[in-house]
Amino acid sequence: MSEEQQTEQGEVVLRLTDVVKTFPGVRALDGVQLEVRAGEVHCLLGQNGAGKSTLIKVLAGVHRPDEGQIEWLGHDFAPANPQAAMKAGIATIYQELDLVEDLSVGENTFLGHEPKVFGFVRRGYMARHTREILGKLGHSEIPSRRLVRSLPAAGKQVVSMARALSHDARLIIMDEPSAVLAHDEVANLFRIIRGLTAQGIAVIYISHRLEEIREIGDRVTVLKDGRTTAANLPARTTPTRDLVSRMTGRTIEYVFPEPAPEVQGAPELLRVEGLTRANEFADISLSVHSGEIVGIAGLVGSGRSELLETIFGARRSEAGTVRMNGKALRPGSVSAAVRAGLGMAPRSARARPCCWASRSTATSRSRRSASTPGSASPTSGARSRRPTASPSGSTCALATCAAPCGPSPAATSRRSSWGAGCSVTPSCCCSTSPPGASTWAPGPSSTR
Asked: The pTM is what?
């Protein structure tokens, strides 16, 4: 019997009928229909703003629907809060994982429902059952007492799944789970998902990557502007043209507009020549003119983010020069880059919660591409707050970071743990070690 035939015979665990959710001035969900069966991977597709996030939050108990009916395991379902949804067997793994990084794997797995005796946490029981759950997920090698902070992105997702299984989840909702994973980590994620569905657990999988839908999905539901435009399509055989048309309302030929003509004679704003950092990138050269976008391509781990951080001064280059408006910037100096009008918006707002503002007013009209392992362009927008000088002489270029930074980036490129020097988050770019430590580095890169 094929996998799709088995899925069709699974019982319906979740059914949404004409679900409506409105916010002031916005009808986020407008009669959504959805049916999920036990042991299947049901893929949810839609453009940004289609209503996927709102639908997830309705199922997770964050929002209450205004109209319509939700049936869970054959009964009407209206969770009052996320705890009620989790207790009922619906677990949600958001794209931004909600783990406590300074707690252990076991403590995160049983967070909020720790096994206790006379008010004392049964840590041995918790560690033993965490190992059992990790074994079911095929990752018994992860120590239950290891801090979550030390795990890679793929390991943190495994811990999120372990937390869901600790609640005896019957349905796991995964929001863009592969967004921060390398290719081999995605393959491992799919292996785990197949193991979950083999146990009869249903999975709602949300992704923009159609190739992933083909590989892991059983059926597909498409949302557009809060409405269900297609339901229960076969994931492996539905033509891409049909999926794109139902997501966008246009045929695939009209999804992408014609590129704007290249601006001729525009002045050069940024020039990078021979930029090099050992074991990260070597001899990178590029230029950015006013009004243009320079695209940079590379695989995860190829050094794209490291190149950007070096151009911006968050890392010190070992060779090469960076010029802004013809003026060479001091290597390893974020404040010099900001004063010259260079800005940086990190890839991950969670990994790097601060957005570096620029004084540049360049606009983005024309497009170019360069096959080098990073990307950079001056950004436009609001003026940045003047850097705050620190006692050690370095500056914090972040508009939202109120505390002084630690020693200069030129002192060392070693990564450091969160200390008392930054008031934002542990991964703020001006993260420092405890007083007396001579280390400085940007927060962890989302591509490493």
From this structure: 0.60
